[in-house]
What does this fold into?
Amino acid sequence: MINVTKFVGATMVMLALTGPAFADDAFNVKEIGSYHVGGREVHLEGLPVKMLKFTPDAKPLKSDPNGRFEVEQMYVQYVRLADPKAKYPLLMWHGGGMSGVTWETKPDGQLGWQSFFLKAGHDVYVSDAMERGRASWARYPEIYKTEPFFRTKAQAWTISRIGPTFEGRKEYDGQQFPTGSFDQLMKQAVPRWGSENNAPTQAAYDAYVQKQCPCVLMLHSQASSFGFKEALRHPDLIKAIIAVEPSGRIDASTDELAKMSGIPHLFIWGDYLKDVPIWGETLLPTLESYQDDLKKAGVPVTVWHLPEMGIKGNTHMMMMDRNSDVIAAKIQDWINDAGLMK
It folds into this structure.
């Protein structure tokens, strides 16, 4: 059972949610909500007016795209506990071509890391970055300068290291992703844009950090470079970084990186990295270099290669793998050891 507590005036309202997923665990929720943050107003003019039918039997109506719009914002959903055990909220940032669904219910229907860390005592914030999911996206080429692109199933299968080839859905031996739910994973995929959208994405994340932190960041894949930059900009607001298979780094001098000497960093790597060139030959060496640079700057860095710890078969989507709770439990132990719990 989850007890959801809400105050209406001077009255406390209790809402009990029951079900098999919550039969053995319970946590008291103070508030569930959401907001948009960041973005800017854009004024478009000189665009052609069209007549559109909005329902099949309706008469055509004028659709005028000229006017003022809110664009480049991001979306944040939060669950705040009545009595959190963690000192700071945990902000979960998703990777490329995905949205905050990454952290919610897993493709096979099991509870994801959002629920795990709520049960562990964290206020949890799950966001959709600019251009993704409920953050919405803007017109192109008037605002976004290029069209979106989409990742195919075959590309997702191989880059996520589920298997060497999508043809026949060939898997790596012992891999942990529930492949019977792969199609469900791909239903989560959303359009994305190239690096030309990085600057407004970073600006939205920056507004988010300034609004919501101090906090702990949990970063997956593409989110890493945005999170690392926020830690460098706001070392007083970011209390720890958990980088789950990061795919980007920041280029900064040792003196600059030393500003983050009070921010413990945890890097987590799964299996089969050497089997996929983009990981073994490009991304992993780049991030290993970044880990070394941080250490030289006096930043506390912990690196986990899960197979070396006896945790084998994990894909790039380790938060969705069958053994994801094993990894989450170890992350929680690291959070405890870092002094981030009350």
Q: What stands out?
A: The helical segments are 113-119, 153-159, 182-187, 198-212, 223-233, 254-257, 277-296, 324-337.
